Amino acid sequence: MMDRRENEAESSPRRRGQGKLEAHVLSVLKDAVEPVPVAWVQERLGGDLAYTTVITILTRLHGKGAVERERAGRSFVWTAVADEAGLAALRMRKVLDAETDRQAVLASFVTALSPHDELLLRELLAGEPGEPGEGDR
Fold first, then answer.
1. Is the pTM of this model over 0.70?
2. Higher local confidence (pLDDT), 137 or 35
3. Minimal CA–CA distance to 16: which of 45, 55, 51?
């Protein structure tokens, strides 16, 4: 027998995870050539999200430091200051900041990396050539 949540999940439209939705909003904002209002973002997201949902996502991203906002009349216009990789880094930093033993968390993280990721991390820390995004600086 199906419980109520399973039944609702089958009858409701496909739900996206918060992280995926935030990443999608960021990618839309990155396409903007100037600060944009919520309605602009909502329209480019495909229109299936409520205006208030888009505001909530933008407000959360603002709280995470991934977007900036400035007053425009009685509302705000929004600008992305981080990309998807920057958003992931912000989430990782938040998790790390919540732990009391940073050294243990970092040591556990590093020892669980694949050999390729470990080499990449070493190169990034050393600032060696071949660093991803090197030409972006």
1. no
2. 35
3. 45
